[in-house]
């Protein structure tokens, strides 16, 4: 090996960062298939030519235990050993693996906790309560704030009278007259 070899600890650190990505219950000792694909994508192991997402999925399935849905760091290393010669064609297994490790070291999941809020004109139009007409208009008060349930549901009349009955509330008077 000509170049300085990368220590397993450095690769392990990256493995752990990706292993816990998006999973609050993860310990960092095992990685699921989704995060394995993510580490391969973020670290440019998947180049779209020599290594594709399909290759990564196949290798993941190959190295994991039959019934397991996650891989350990040992299995992860084994998976990288399988992917390295594919990614760096024409290099020796060792050299290819070292270059692959080089891609992974110091990396952590991209876009952690970044969700961009899109402000599209369509959203503004849809949420502009002044443009609502008909029965929908009744869902909002004057300021454009929603009335909640009161503005949305037909509140049932529990007075005991049939709808559209003109003489509602006159029963007591009739009983007194008799």
From TrEMBL:
Keywords: Cytoplasm, Heme, Iron, Metal-binding
Bias-annotated ranges (Basic and acidic residues): 135-155
GO CC term (a single one): cytoplasm
Subcellular localization(s) per the UniProt record: Cytoplasm
Predominant place of localization: cytoplasm
Domain Cytochrome c: 23-166
UniProt cross-references to Gene3D superfamilies, sorted A to Z: EF-hand
UniProt-annotated stretches for the region Disordered: 133-164
Bilayer-crossing regions: none
Pfam family, one: p25-alpha
Classification via InterPro entries: Cyt_c-like_dom, EF-hand-dom_pair, TPP/p25
GO molecular function: electron transfer activity; heme binding; metal ion binding; tubulin binding
One BP annotation, GO: positive regulation of protein polymerization
Protein family (similarity comment): Belongs to the TPPP family.
UniProt name for this protein: Cytochrome c domain-containing protein
Organism: Mola mola
